[in-house]
Amino acid sequence: MTKNNLLHVAIDGPAGAGKSSVAREVARRLGILYLDTGAMYRAFAWKALEQAIDLADADALAGVVRETTLDFDVEHYRIFCDETDVTEAIRTPQVSAGASAVAVVPGVRTYLTELQRRKALENSIVLDGRDIGSCVLPNAPVKIFLTADLRERARRRQKDLREQGRDVDIERVMEDMEARDRQDAQRAAAPMVQAEDAVLIDTSYMAFDEVVERVLELVRGVRP
Ligand code: DC
Question: Has this prediction a pTM greater than 0.85?
Fold first, then answer.
């Protein structure tokens, strides 16, 4: 618990580990907020792609991000970028790669991190991302690093994409994920890393409900 009795749960890990669905369900069960920080990087990447900004132009990206408004409809899990509902538009493979590219830029990270901390300052909340336990909320009492085998993660992502009507080859999904994980883990600014005090959960052979229960168990440990 934080000083003002708020509960912060940090869930980090590589692409496709199931962070968002687990974080969302944990927040629902606890009756607290959920913030998908990856969706924030995605929404900004969507805008940069729409405006044809060169994703290698760090100065341009750092400038535009500060003029970007990101809003959430927390009840219906929708995200708005400058008032456009981008909930579905940010789930394409092109935006996934773009999000990882804009996430390298320190100015982009500083701004989005500020927004994330602001939300956590006033609310009990579950955040999922890459740097929540290591950078955004280093004092979070519950930190989890959620992972799974690359092939299993790719299989799950392929299933999600199929549900959206996109048929993609599993080998291609694996390649994209591996490239993105490498970029996310190797960047200089707040790379993806398991915080020293984070609990590792490998979900490769776990059912969804089991993972949620394990996280809730860790929460009960700090909030009896
Ligand atoms: O969780 P996701 O796949 O929606 O995230 C998209 C990209 O955003 C991911 O490849 C890296 C970046 N990201 C980040 O750098 N830091 C976060 N806290 C969340 C996401």
Answer: yes
